[in-house]
Amino acid sequence: MTSSTEPRVVQTTAGDLPLEEYNLRLEGRVWSILHTAAVISREDEQRFLSAEEKRVPYGTVLWPAAIALAHEVALRKVDRLRVLELGAGTGLPGIVAASLGARVVQTDRQPVAMFICKTNAERNKVTVEHRAADWTAWDDPAKYDYILASDVLYADGMHPHLRRIFESNLAPGGTILVSDPFREASFTLLEAMEADGWKITMSKWTVAVTPPARPVAVFELKRG
């Protein structure tokens, strides 16, 4: 999957960071992505969010929620469906969807994350539309059959913006898949949407690159 022209170092506000490779193997298929670090366990996360490392862009890192969501997407029939990925980061879930025939739009606010996301789409030989996007200034009028998002519910202040996107961009009969490692803040939005009539179900995944494993929820949201 690698090419001699691919970047092996990415420039960030934290300086030049080497890119690592992660391979997801499912049902005889392999998806390969580049990232700046694998933040899987809670201990990894605490180190990453420490004062010494917090300048590394959040979106360039491989998070367990993205791996769990990619597994969930691989189980879905998305051929020819329109898919929007919010906060795409390294792009793994959307890349899996595109490889299964979906028409995918991936968005992120961070330019360096968008660069890695585009690189990963190219190295997996899938066609994806990439857009720089800020949830607080969202202006996409399109409707999507699936909206994907991994590890986006950690900030309460973003919940109103995410909910506006969910409600305005989901096509009739569509599905939202949001993955989250059981962060307390995530339940604030989910419970509010359920109270307003949304149907929410959950599947649980366990993600590990090396032990210990991390439990991750993938929430499915549908209009009531």
Secondary structure: elements and pairs:
Blueprint: E1 9-12, E2 15-18, E3 20-26, E4 29-35, H1 42-48, H2 64-74, E5 82-86, H3 92-99, E6 103-108, H4 111-123, E7 128-132, E8 144-150, H5 159-169, E9 170-180, H6 186-195, E10 199-207, E11 214-222
Helix pairs in contact: 2-3
- What is the CATH topology classification name? Rossmann fold
In DSSP terms (H or I, runs of 4 or more residues), the helix count works out at: 6
List segments where confidence is low: pLDDT < 50 over at least 5 consecutive residues.
Answer: none
| CATH homology group | Vaccinia Virus protein VP39
**DSSP helix fraction:** 25-40%
Strand count: 11
Largest sheet: 7 strands, mixed
Could you give the distance between the termini?
42 Å
* Class based on secondary structure composition and strand pairing: alpha/beta
Kindly estimate the percentage of residues that lie in beta strands according to DSSP: 25-35%
The strands making up the biggest β-sheet line up spatially as 7-6-5-8-9-11-10
